[in-house]
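User: My advisor, Dr. K., asked me to get a structural model of this assembly before our group meeting. I'm new to this, so sorry if the format is off. These are the inputs:
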Amino acid sequence: MNNQFNKPEIPPTIQVMPGTDATSEPNLPLYEKQLMPGKGQALVARSNITKGQLILSEKPFFTTTNLANTAIMEKQISIELQKLPKETQRQFLSLHNNFPRKHPFSGIVRTNALPCSSEPQIGGVYPTISRINHSCLPNAHSSWDSASGHENIYAVRSIRAGEEITIAYDHGGTSDERRRYLKDGFGFDCDCVICSRNPEGLKRSDERRRIIQRLDAAIGNAARVMYHPKDCLGDCQVLLQTLEEEYEGSPGAYLARLYYDAFQISVAHFDLARAATFAERSYRARRAACWFWVDEEMEEFEGPGAEGVGFG
Ligand SMILES: C[S@@+](CC[C@H](N)C(=O)[O-])C[C@H]1O[C@@H](n2cnc3c(N)ncnc32)[C@H](O)[C@@H]1O
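Assistant: The format is fine. Below is the predicted structure of the whole assembly, which you can bring to the meeting.
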């Protein structure tokens, strides 16, 4: 549900994924679709799901680039839709559209697309994954597997049977910033566990989100990486602690990015031991199959007398 489709440089193209039809619903019985009051359809856990577990893996109906040019996109989607089996067309058209009057087809893509590459403009829309609602404290996260052409949904914390499965649509920021983004792009007022905290709790969360944004930007500053690498690694440590606090021990995909930044900082200064460790942590965090391992590492460099490779 990445709404960052506003860069017109890439000509619009649509790629139909082979093998996607009405029967492509995976057979992992970990979830079911349910109507959720005030939220439309939702995915709900049918059984307890363990942190790190693959919940579902699915091919998109098609992938699409450049949603900025909606007129062209409308035409292209309608042409591609006609090539799909009737039942698949019906599935696509039944997805939620937050922009129904102006954009009957591209509105569905804008409301439902998840990025499926490092290019934020390339998005995929899914029969089942597109039913997952948002939370600012999600219990799952999406991860594109380019080798298989599947979007995978992993649990980032334990999920109890009956609990709604959620991912984060937002790109961070304070609760006000997130609310605006979710209202404009998706048409709802977020009342997740974070957004419905009391004013004091919300204020603390907002402060942490500001720290996360500030440190994220500071760590990516090339001049600072060059001249103050130790400070940058110190920022990585503070960012890790803040993420842990804000996301209640499960920072999900943020962790992969943080370790990737730490890898780049280390490699820029020929600290190859740290670089190798951070690269591996980033890789394993991104694969999302290793949350237990990551938790152990956290203890390792946070505990007294830790001997593992840390940021400092
Ligand atoms: C990708 S769809 C998710 C599935 C959707 N509920 C459906 O019925 O198909 C995104 C839309 O779901 C709804 N939605 C998602 N998260 C929500 C939330 N936390 N609260 C209320 N509505 C939400 C909004 O209407 C949003 O535009």
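One thing worth pointing out at the meeting: The two ends are 36 Å apart (CA to CA).

User: Perfect, thanks a lot.
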